[in-house]
Amino acid sequence: MNKAILTLGVLGGMGPLATVDFLQKLIEETPATRDQDHIPVIAYSVPQIPDRPPAIIGTGESPFPHMLAGIHTLRHAGAAAIAIACNTAHFWYDDLLQQGGVPILHIADAACADFAGLNIQRVGLLATQGAIAAGFYQSRLSARGIECLLSSADDQHALVLPAIEHVKRTELAQAHALATRAAQSLLKSGAQAIIMGCTEIPLAIEYQSSEVAAHCIDATRALARACVRWWQSELA
Known about the structure:
The chain is an alpha/beta fold. It folds into two domains: 7-106 and 221-235, Rossmann fold (3-Layer(aba) Sandwich), CATH 3.40.50.1860; 109-219, Rossmann fold (3-Layer(aba) Sandwich), CATH 3.40.50.1860. The protein contains eleven helices and eight strands. The protein is globular, with a radius of gyration of 17 Å.
């Protein structure tokens, strides 16, 4: 297939900075020596998509029709596959796949694949309340024989969620301080590695160097690598 027409669609805007982070990591993970070696991308970044966690727990408008409209826009623009630059949005993965008419790469599949061949039994998860309630990380880790550790209720409300909110306000220094404390708490609880299972969390953790970063699996970067593998396999 011609590289010029094999295009990746990115459903983003949830949030905007996380979408840019995914696109940056997609470029970094692509083996390229010139412009023409990179993956053609169409990005749909619409921040007005309703918030995902409130919808999952039953207190907010469903973002599904808005996300589906975005996927239809990307498909009609020529996207051959879709990456969703938001972990929590994968709560609607099955319905989006069924009604969207285009393959969708799953961010949790990509992140959990990083544990293949590693002797890891306990993994911490930093994520939104919606992603935790959806359970797609827990089920995938369990299928690999890995226990999933969650932040305590206190840490979730005092550290994880405020860190995500700080990133959405582009207050990365404040987000970093909170997210690293949440990660340290999970490590002290016995986690051997931590999945940054919200696309805002890598932006917080990676804002500056820290000891916890070496223990973190970046789901955003894992999705970028999965997209590169998809593109390369389609061209083979």
